[in-house]
Design brief:
Strand content: 15-25%
Number of helices: 5
Strand order of the largest sheet: 3-4-7-8
Order of helices and strands: HHHEEEEEEEEHH
Radius of gyration: 21 Å
Oligomer: single chain
Helix content: 40-55%
């Protein structure tokens, strides 16, 4: 009788743990996605601060653009006033290793297998705040569409994050990303994704 009772308790313990593990894993992924949004905001603030400072000095803004300014992500990061350790921390994510070598303004940034984010060229125009500035690497934004690569690091098919030039940054589950009002978030004439190197 005692053995039967113990077997029943063990059975229920296994069932409860089987149900709890996916919920815990989902909560961890959600926390990692929110951390990714925090990194996006730090990059945005660094970019905004230097662009504002340059505007006062009548120098070009440093927003990545199709016109050659910051034509790739490494060149873009070398314009930001960030220490190498900060760049490593910001560009890291689950499954991604980042190594930054060199000195401020001449960083060599190595990401394996890829950076945590994709960066997009943005420009100056009245509605430029709606342009997508960054997305988590598993999310690819193009005029009129958003696709999610279920095999990409980080986050796969769990969800993704998007940051616009206005500074608004949000994390979405994949099903919400796919239902997003694409035409309202990605202008038809927005320039393409910047190459990493």
């Amino acid at each position: 009788m005692i053995l039967v009772g113990l077997a029943v308790i063990a059975f229920f313990a296994i069932i409860v743990s089987a149900l709890a593990i996916p919920a815990i894993a989902g909560a961890i992924k959600q926390a990692q996605l929110i951390h990714s949004v925090s990194g996006m905001r730090q990059i945005y603030l660094a970019t905004f601060a230097i662009s504002l400072d340059n505007e006062k000095k009548e120098l070009p803004a440093i927003w990545p653009s199709a016109s050659g300014t910051s034509s790739n992500v490494t060149a873009f990061f070398n314009q930001l006033d960030l220490a190498g350790g900060d760049i490593e921390r910001i560009l890291s994510a689950p499954g991604i290793k980042v190594n930054v070598e060199g000195q401020r303004g001449a960083w060599a940034i190595h990401c394996n297998p890829n950076p945590a984010y994709r960066f997009y060229a943005v420009g100056d125009r009245p509605d430029d705040g709606m342009q997508v500035f960054m997305s988590s690497f598993n999310v690819q934004c193009a005029p009129g569409s958003i696709t999610v690569d279920k095999n990409a690091v980080p986050f796969g098919n769990f969800g993704g994050a998007i940051c616009r030039k206005s500074g608004s940054a949000e994390a979405f589950q994949t099903r919400v990303l796919r239902r997003q009002a694409i035409q309202d978030t990605i202008p038809k004439d927005q320039a393409e994704e910047l190459p990493w190197k």
